[in-house]
Amino acid sequence: MQQAVIVDAIRSPMGRAKPGSAFTELHPTELLAQVLAGLVERNQLDPGLVEDVITGCVSQVGEQSATPGRVAWLAAGFPEHVPSTTIDRKCGSSQQAVHFAAQGIMAGAYDIVIACGIESMSRVPMGSGRIGQNPYGPSFEARYAPGLVSQGVAAELVAAQWELSRGDLDQYAAQSHQRAHQAREAGAFHREILPIRTAAGLVAHDETIRPATTAERLATLAPSFRDESLGQRFPQIGWHVTAGNASQISDGAAAILLMSERAASRLGLNARARFVAFDACGDSPLTMLTAPIPSSRRALAKSGLALDAIAHYEINEAFACVPLAWQRALGADPARLNPRGGAIALGHPLGASGARLMTTMLHALEDSGGRYGLQSMCEAGGMANATIIERL
Question: Sorted alphabetically, which keywords does the UniProt record give (predicted)?
Answer without folding.
Answer: Acyltransferase, Transferase
